[in-house]
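idk why but the lab printer keeps eating my pages so im just putting this in chat instead. protein + flavin-adenine dinucleotide:
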Amino acid sequence: MKPKAESLRALRIVTRIRLNLVAKYARIQKIIEMKNDTVQKQRGNMIRTDVAVIGGGAAGLMAAITAARQGAKTAVIEHMDRVGKKLLATGNGKCNYTNAKQGVSYYRGEDPAFVLPVFRRFGLAETLRFFEEIGVYPKCRNGYYYPASEQAASVLDVLRMEADACGVHIFTAQETRVVAKQKNGFYLETAQERFFARSLVMAPGLFASPKTGSDGSMMPYIEALGHSVIDIVPALVQLQGKQSFFKAVAGIRAEIVVSLYVDGRLTAADQGELQLTDYGISGIPVFQISRFATKALKRGQKVHALLHFLPQIETAEEMEALLTQRFLDGAAKGRKKDAEQAMTGLLPKKLIGVLLREAGISLHAGAGEVTRRQLRQLAAEVCGLRVDIVGSKGFDAAQVCAGGVSTAEIDANSLESKIVPGLYFAGEVVDIDGCCGGYNLQWAWSSGYVAGLHAAQSDKCKNRMREGARIKQVHVPENSKGVSLKSSE
Ligand SMILES: Cc1cc2nc3c(=O)[nH]c(=O)nc-3n(C[C@H](O)[C@H](O)[C@H](O)COP(=O)(O)OP(=O)(O)OC[C@H]3O[C@@H](n4cnc5c(N)ncnc54)[C@H](O)[C@@H]3O)c2cc1C
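predcted complex ->
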């Protein structure tokens, strides 16, 4: 072999060896990088935060914004694919977010006065100011407040914008599977992430309208933390009646007074527009009394309602006098009306048939032939048609729930648990339910504010916030489903 060819061959061999070495080094380098990355991810996967809020509904968003405004690193853990789904449905899509009339009488629970310190800290005025500041211009109709846009979506939008501006991290589609109290805070685990939070705000709602996310899935965890739960029942909900006449009167709307009796005792009453349906009774006055009915049914008590169809005529005696005039005086004057005709103009036609039947009067009986006894019975039916309540349309149809975490175990000034320090409650999950008319959202805003404020100001959070520069950023791994508000939708 010639010397030139030999040196060329040697050069090729050296080059191949070098290339192999470079490739090998690159592979080794890649493996080292991958290992580092895995270690990084394993370390980074524990998301450290000052305040974690479980539930991104009205109360949870308010709590998170409030905590973040205090300078607390705040994370919201929401199991739906987006936050605030229920808000979009409120007020028939217009969001009746509060009411000009406030007071303890609009709230229910084992201890309705529990709301007072919360509202003193953040009540109607603060709510209106908060929403104006973040962009909601109010529109007030008969004391009911709506956004001027008349779009519930705009209320959710401004809340999301504000949470984003405050640096709240929102983790959606995260089903919590571990909630554990630790020495200095809480360890939380979802299918995707692990969290450590100094304080924890529970705002998962209860069971009302589960398709919007409030499915009660947090209740076992809350009970496991040591809290007792007052019986949870649907409220602000339609009631089912036993009587067979409902199919005949379905669709009727009438201004009525409804009185609710539990085991024969008058328990609640309300006035407003009733809707008769093929299963029972609906409408705002029915919603207002419904929580008393569902609670009593849960206890196995007998429940019935009396419907007064002409509330402007107060007593059965006055009604009897009116009916006597229409039936007997008219007939006496020689007008040959039947019973149905004698009632025409007084009540809706479909209802007349039912009331006459309940009073034992044939529709086509001559008005003049109806006895005084029958007229007395008819007067009683008009002033109090009896509906035996056998159930409600349930959690799916309910706007809220009555019952929830016992207020006896929560400090009313801070909404901190008396059992688990550092744990706070906000919104419907607490045993407080409001009347229809913006009161439930008012409770969500007020309790969210107070819980968020105190969660951020708890000793552990304050100590950590004082550490200033040494605070680590809340870490959101790149592969996380958790995203900031801006990029979430
Ligand atoms: C159709 C309808 C109309 C209404 N209209 C009005 C109205 O006009 N005015 C008014 O004042 N009130 C109204 N309400 C009632 C009001 O919406 C509620 O009282 C209020 O939204 C309660 O707020 P919350 O944050 O406590 O609970 P929710 O709004 O129920 O929010 C709870 C959040 O927690 C999440 N969550 C639940 N479990 C978990 C879990 N395990 N892990 C993570 N996240 C979880 C849910 O997905 C949800 O996003 C209405 C309700 C309905 C259903």
